[in-house]
DNA sequence: TTGAACTTTCAAAATATTGTGAAAGATGGA
DNA sequence: TCCATCTTTCACAATATTTTGAAAGTTCAA
């Protein structure tokens, strides 16, 4: 396989992956393009490469910057802004995990905390079942929170070394 | 908060969570309803409770059964089918993880494997950068695969005990 | 074998999400 | 200040996903 085809396939695959997460397809494609491009790219180059509009490019690049996955680069003598992606995959995963935890886990933890205080008597089997469900889910969610927080803070080597050896 | 309101809030919250995953909102709501209901429910009861159509109910219940999250129950003397959800949250998470790994991680692993064999000379800095990106991502993806496979197979106690203690 | 009770399917409608591009808003050099 | 260049916004258009409900399919007791 030649490089241009390989690039296209990677962009496509990363895009599908993104689409299944809360990241939208184009955002993931822009990210993919920047990931495999060594130097910085301008908005125009991204537009041309992915065949998307200026507005779309702008919005998705901005969102990638919000996630911390992409940074602006100023090139002396150029008016345009250029963009580069964080290339270290461990950092990339860590940033994505942090963002998704904030959007997904944190809100449900809040709701679960409130729901634990539902009124009613445990003699009512519906109340009892509800309490037990919430309790179980809450216990798990708190553990997941601990685990993810640790993972986000941890070092690459800890993951590839310690944890992985334990799991294998 | 009274039970009916708490139920509604939980269904709502679980639905939003599902929507951010590849699970659709209604599927997650049906799941939530079954999770907090101690006994089995019929399609009609689900329809009534969530205000959704018969077709929608059928499709989503069927999908939940495919995921292994919900089972059919036959009640003697009744023609109707009834449904119950797996209540053990550890099993629930394990089933969801298995399904998502199959849909998301496995396909990208396949693509990465192919892309590792891109033609070209490392003297070309684009080829070099591409290879390095793919290599890094591939290494991580394989590790994630190992980690998730182990997690899916592992016992509840291992997660709440061993792993969590290590992370705290 | 019939028909009532129930489940499944699927084309069309409703809804939600994403993308476009022209216009408005910045920015900075002369 | 002015103007050329670049960025951002946003109403509308295009796409994609989800839901509906009526019709077709299935099952089983009589």
UniProtKB/TrEMBL annotation, chains A, B:
It comes from the Bacteria. Keywords: DNA-binding, Transcription, Transcription regulation. InterPro entries: HTH-GbsR_regulator, HTH_MarR-typ, MJ1563, WH-like_DNA-bd_sf, WH_DNA-bd_sf. Gene3D superfamilies: Winged helix-like DNA-binding domain superfamily/Winged helix DNA-binding domain. Pfam families: MarR_2. Residues 26-71 form the HTH marR-type domain. One of its GO terms (molecular function) is DNA-binding transcription factor activity. Belongs to the GbsR family. This is HTH-type transcriptional regulator. It comes from Chitinophaga costaii.
